[in-house]
Amino acid sequence: MTGKTFPEEPDLKEKNEIKSAKTDFIKVTSMKKLLIESYEDSENALDVESGNTKVGATANERILSPPVGGFVSIVETSLRSIQSAGSAIVNAVFTKVDSGPNAPFAVSPKDLGDLSSERTHRALARLLEKALRNIPPCLPGQEESLENDRVQIEFLVKRIGTTEENIDQYILDSERHIHDMELAANALATVILRSKPEEGITNEKTDIDFRRETFGTNAITPKELDSFLKLCWEAVQNFVLIMLIVLGIIGIIVETTIGLEEGETCGHCWLEGAAILAAVLIVVLVSATIDYRKQYAFVRLTRSLYETNTKMVIRGGRQLSVIDDEIVVGDILSVNAHNLANIPADCVVLGPPISGGLQMDEASLTGESVLITKNPGDIVLSGTTVVQGSGKLLVIAVGINSVAGKIKARVYEASESEVDGLEGDSQSPLFMKLEALAKRIGMAGTAAALLSLFVNCIKGFAFGSEKPKDVLIEYIVVAITVLAVAVPEGLPLAVTLALAFSSSKMMKDQNLVKTLDACETMGCATTICTDKTGTLTANKMTARAMYINGTNFTCTDPAVALADFVKSTKDRPNEKILEVVSKLISINTMDETTVDIDPSGKIMASTGNPTEVALLALASTLGPTNYRDIRENTRGRSDKGELSEFLVEGKQFQFTSARKMMSWAVPLIQGGYRIYCKGASEVLLARCNHHLTKECSGNDVVELNDASRQVVLGVGELYARRGMRTLALAYRDLPDGVDFEAKSDSVLNADGSEANEVETNLTFVALVGIEDPLRPEVPGAIDKCYEAGIDVRMVTGDAPNTAVSIAYQAGILKDYHFAPGTDEKIASNLKPYVLMEGKIFRRKVYRIHDNGNKEFDQSAFDKIWPHLRVMARSSPDDKLTLAHGLNQSTLYTDQSACDQLKKDDNISVFPDRQVVAMTGDGTNDAPALKRADIGFAMGIAGTQIAKDAADIILLDDNFASIVTAAKWGRNVYASIQKFLQFQLTVNISAVVTALVGSFVYAKSPLAAIQLLWVNLIMDALASLALASEPPTDELLKRDPVNRSKSIISTQMWWNMLGHAVYQLGVIFFILFAGPSIWGFLPGDHVERELKENSTHYTFIFNSFVWMQLFNEMNARSLHGEFNVFRGILKNHLFCGILLSTAALQVIMVQCGGEAMHVSEGGLSGELWGYSIAFGAGSLPVQQVINVLCVILERSFGMFWSRRLQSSRRLFSRRVSMSL
């Protein structure tokens, strides 16, 4: 940091104190190293009785073992003393100074949050420097300690925050750098945050509450749930419901006031208006209740997670288990890889450093699957996971001040339609269409009502004898009835029931739907942007290839284990060689890596390093003996039973990045040792001079010449191009008395240091290729997506070749995506823009202005996305950009560009806006999940923040479940179409009947209460019946429904108009010819003169209802299918509702009386027979309509198709211009 002003150098006395402390520390460290060397040299010379000491533990771990007597006891006692002394010297540099209860801290939550955000050692130095200026006064008697801390920190800050000129040299001095960072982390804990690495904070409630008050709580306020009243208010924001409310209120006012004649009492005159309002109330309550229950279902799903999230903290010198929400700044966390601890807050790693450091998985924040090593002074972020190692962490930021908390707050506070200024659509495609349809129906109904009022007024006033004041109210009531008939009262309830039914079924198919709209939106999806790890793959590293005995075994079937594949081939290695492989892997893996395998070879549970888990699974199924049995029965490796006393005879060389290998030597029964090695293929092969071949018995070896070595390296390169991680396995037999500490004169480690002599002159055994395998069901699911017109794009943090390998296996990439004339399926052979790395993608789609601000370039994005199938090395922000760019693209309106893409690359652009589904599991994925039309979060691997932002949660983290969601979504759309086909047929017939009746008799033959029965009760049951139709695979053989396409298809229009004509013909036949044929009095005469409900109009009502009941079976078919009964008996709910509705109709006609406006005593058996016969006539009518449609389609289909396509493109252009 050039230009920074450092504090003055400490005076001579202070310098001498620092120098003395450092000298003491160096002396102690040197003595400790000397004793450790003496101890290890004595292991092979002395016959000792060991306790629980394990080979492979560090010296720090060994000295914690119980003393066992003799020289070893002396050494271990000395080591314990030196360990304590060294720790005391490091910790004594800083003293926890008591500033009094509730004294202010020297840093603010923002300061600590900035450290988490920047995550550099210099940021830590700057924080310490700033804190020095704000340290509160200490209690009397501690001034000297506080001043000493100031001096030490100032000197440390100056050394860490060194200038740009010599920072590189300082970093190269790794011992000094690591030591300084350990001191800096301890200074932050002890001096600044008033905690101690060994004791933590106090366990007093006042201290904990004060820290919570100062730095915030770790319990981020959960997303506020919508109240039931708010959900009711949202449900009533529907055009149809608003119209019904207005009609109901007007109806009650008119009927109870000006509609009454002089001296007439109201009686049940309010019933029709009240029934309309009751219908609205039912719809609102049902809709709000479903949404309310969905909210709490999600809360119940996550509450158990909160209650089980506990961590070990040190408070008052004791280890305590607390839930994540109770952790405060200054707490010391004890973490280890055995339980794959998820970090609950931002932390700083404390010392002393452990061998290999903490291995962290930061994929939830970065999307990168590579493990990150953390050493003292490094920042560990909340939401990341400890995969390997153990250590202590100092909590520095909690809740909304942590990195994950900031993202969570950003997700909760962002509006539903805007994330970072990237605006999207506020409504789903279906609801946009339904709202537009409802408005058109409302306008048509209003026009029909005004027409009725106008005609009746002309007829009554101009040609009639009635006084206007006597009949005007009656004409208005008739007009309101016509309008009420036109409005589909059952539509909102039908939509709600269809979505609720589908969401409950989707739950059984591993899709937890949080918002009902997401059901049908997924049915309109045109693009799925999916993660790789855990979604396309099983998220379990698995051995998939092995080169052994000169033979390459590559298993391409995801359903077959590599071990089974190897043993099933004719070139399988002999049993002795397989036994060598099993022993090598079982012995030379860490104790913390375990795997449980069922008899079928399936991994049931595992812990530790994922790569070692894959090797252990291979070893357990490849050889005759389980890896645990090998470990427990191998002298020098076993720490169980009688063999545990010989554990010290073994020797472990841990994996380090400098060596890129790991080894474990165990004594042999016949004398000497065998050292088993595994590591990077290029490293181990350079150290091998022999190898096993098919002719070998397992102990005999042959020389490994350059040609053989090149063959193995070529196979390794082949594995790498397929996206596999390669590990070489080797061993060497050593004589008694071998010097394990001897260094090689000719072989160097990967970092240039001298290699261990015992790890040279090895015998090559096998090369293993490990990958995260594809889920077996994924290729078939992706094929279904392409068949359904849904593009699949993979977004991953992996390297390009790894991404290409998985994408090709999954079927996302096809042969035509690769350049002609290329055979290898690697990234460099892909056509332009098919694969892009995140940094290149960002550079191309964002314009950087002179002031440094960036702006999204939609035109540049439109040149890329039609080709893009894989994005490698991507960041979560790339997902957000991808979702926004796809959703806002209007490329489909550029006909010339679409034609060119089709001609040059055979790419068809969907003729409407893209509907984007996005998967995510990490915290940083939340904004993209919120921005996409449908966000899918992983139920198993997903973070809580990702689940909160998503619309649907995949309970099994499986891509195939997304395809199931698409199928159910399309089924919702089809169910609504079926109901609309049924409902609008009713409305067309009823409106025309009401209009004709008003023209002829100034009154509709169908009473308003009868139409309400048809529109509400019958239609509600019909909607549930039609919604219960299960989805079929044929739904995925059609293209997605675009936004501009009408929800009512051409076939639906033919069906509705055809049945409406038939129904109107029957009704008018009964209305005008019925009295003369069946001998009953005309209904108009009975109701006007006799003031009774007529048999005539009751017969019309009954026939009308039965035609709807039979037409309900026709409505199951949308595309002109001739067999309308297909699968009807399998849908028990549909059959039950149909029979129940028929029974209710019988009750209404025979017993409804005045309430249902039917004749007393109902209808005779003859009229019942005619009513049912007229209803059954709907079935052959449907067949006639289907035949006519086929004839018209063949005759005029091409003409109408071209006209329709032209109209849609014109509409799309107007929509895009308006947007």
UniProtKB/TrEMBL annotation:
This is P-type Ca(2+) transporter. It comes from Cyclostephanos tholiformis. Residues 311-410 form the P-type ATPase A domain. It is a multi-pass membrane protein. InterPro entries: ATPase_P-typ_cation-transptr_C, ATPase_P-typ_cation-transptr_N, ATPase_P-typ_cyto_dom_N, ATPase_P-typ_P_site, ATPase_P-typ_TM_dom_sf, ATPase_P-typ_transduc_dom_A_sf, ATPase_P-type_domA, HAD-like_sf. GO terms for molecular function: ATP binding; metal ion binding; P-type calcium transporter activity. Its main location: membrane. The keyword Nucleotide-binding applies. It catalyses: Ca(2+)(in) + ATP + H2O = Ca(2+)(out) + ADP + phosphate + H(+). Residues 1004-1186 form the Cation-transporting P-type ATPase C-terminal domain. The keyword Glycosyltransferase does not apply. Residues 193-250 form the Cation-transporting P-type ATPase N-terminal domain. Keywords: ATP-binding, Calcium, Calcium transport, Ion transport, Magnesium, Membrane, Metal-binding, Nucleotide-binding, Translocase, Transmembrane, Transmembrane helix, Transport. The chain crosses the membrane at residues 239-258, 270-290, 441-463, 475-501, 984-1002, 1008-1028, 1053-1074, 1131-1148, 1168-1192. It is found in: Endomembrane system. GO terms for cellular component: endomembrane system. It is an enzyme of class 7 (translocase). Its EC number is 7.2.2.10.
